[in-house]
Design goal:
single chain; 7-stranded mixed β-sheet; 4-stranded antiparallel β-sheet
Length: about 120
């Protein structure tokens, strides 16, 4: 059964950086589109960034220029480098893998941006 495990969250001051990782136990990982979502308290889950199987990327406007998504297909891992963090980036961050009708989620990792 597919499993996604996120890591790298934590408490950071405004302006700081974090790097999230998601290791996917999925066969044919390289064919999956991978995404990072986040959900803040009282808000809906939103797509933050995704990367296609071909390496194309897209970001929500609020993180453009600050966050970078990347993948290492040899290690079945997707990353989210987050720089210049703001308090409004505080949320639980989830990893998602999608291929045709299949979609898998990780358990989430908490990111808190506060002084």
């Amino acid at each position: 059964q597919a499993q996604l495990v996120e890591s790298g969250g934590g408490l950071v001051q405004p302006g700081g950086s974090l790097r999230l990782s998601c290791v996917a136990s999925i066969s044919a990982f390289s064919f999956y589109a991978m995404g990072w979502y986040r959900q803040a308290p009282g808000k809906q889950r939103e797509l933050v960034a995704f990367i296609t199987s071909g390496g194309s990327t897209n970001y929500v406007d609020s993180v453009k220029g600050r966050f970078t998504i990347s993948r290492d297909n040899a290690k079945n891992t997707v990353f989210l480098q987050m720089n210049s963090l703001k308090p409004e980036d505080t949320a639980v961050y989830y990893c998602n893998a999608a291929l045709k009708a299949s979609a898998y989620w990780g358990q989430g990792t908490q990111v808190t941006v506060s002084s």
